Amino acid sequence: MAKYNSIFDILGPIMVGPSSSHTAGAARLGKIARYIADGDIKSAKITLYGSFAETAKGHGTEMALVAGILGMEPYDDKLRYSLEIAKEAGIDVLFEKGEIPGVHPNTARFALERHDGTHITVTGSSIGGGAVIVNAIDTFNVELTGDYFTIVTKHVDKKGIISKVTTLLADNNINIGNMKVRRDISKNEASMIIETDEIVSVEVLGKIKRLEEMIFVIEIKPVRENKNVQ
Amino acid sequence: MYNSGNDILKACDILNKPIWEIVLLDEIENQHTSESDIFNRMEETLRIMENSISYPIDNKVETLGGIIGGEGKAMMAYADSDRTLSGRWTTKAMARAFACSEYNASMGKICAAPTAGSCGIIPAAIITIAEKNGLSRQAMMRGLITSAGVGKIISTNATVSGAEGGCQAECGSAAAMAAAALVEMNGGSPLQSLDAAAIALKNIMGLICDPVAGLVESPCSKRNASGVANAMISADIAMSGIVSVIPFDEVVEAMYNVGKGMHENFKETAKGGISITDTGLAYSRKIK
User: pTM value?
Assistant: First the structure.
């Protein structure tokens, strides 16, 4: 039983058809992948799994995924032209079908290349009604819904980093709603996923990015639009 | 705050207000918004609905799967003839529901109401009856608010997802939401509104979701057309003074239980019903 809060969750979303999971959800997934790649995408190899692989054509799933990568909203009239728009923008897009046992039926994996040649991989699923969840960034398991402002860090695994970041947020009146910490001992690297109630300003993000031990910081703006129309 | 049809009926009675006003007051309070913001947003929603139910009647659209196409236009031409069996306005509403389904299947911009697969029923019902009875835009938006309130109750206590409850949960909920709005727009009482919603749900209780080739085309567009007719006849039954033997809340619970008991082959997986007929499978092979 889904909990809808607003009458516009019932009469909505406003979206380009035909399917909330295979089209609108796919676009949202692409949009999160774009944020995670910092909006800098030179090429994308997108692997489709399960029902995404089987019914992509009839649901416009490929167009929706690419529209998301281009930063379009699920209600953008131009969504259907996304493949051409990507081509004109010089972004190479390649699709393939994959199989992972037990994977959620509507799953896509974005292998993205930035203009400086670095790569990032985002894997996520469209879980119904346009809602999505990102399961992995590179080999790092996450659970991002895109409902909150989220900061993802990768940093040198040293004492005191977490406290430096959380102090910076607290000093700027930003409340942390959810936080996960992981580490990769073999690389001496650790990572944080921080969901915040408030939007973190460019200034505060800059301070976090400039911490000596930071390898990278990604900001993910909420993708669940407050307004369903522009 | 309301969680059931009974809550709504009580609030209507105590405050002596129609359903749409109760839903509006709740939205203002719980979403920290204002009446004018809600109506502005509803106006935008209505505009998108109006376009989606009319565009494919005046323009040719191509659906992604190519299974459906042209139904809205054909039905509208038929509605304008004097040969219809179910009456001009019913057929006109069906034409618009068909058109909206085509628009959705051709990547047009629609309002999921409550889902993309059932997006034709509520706009076709409300816009057609408003046209027939000369009702204002304000009345149409009030109707949309009433329908959303009924949809909220269904999704709180059951589901509006075909994958969870079959077509009864999608097109059934849309028809119930539309029926409640039509009754209120035409002067019926809150109880008559919810009775109309209950009757619409009962009329197609148990209906499975069996999309050909897994796409939102066939039988979805015809179930949108029959869904709007279901909304209109259910509203008429309630307006005639006939009551729903089983109250709305109990019907919603029953629909949910039927949905839970439905085999997964019948819940949007395209593994049952007409999806696996010889012709259904042939479409599936052709599209892949």
Answer: 0.89
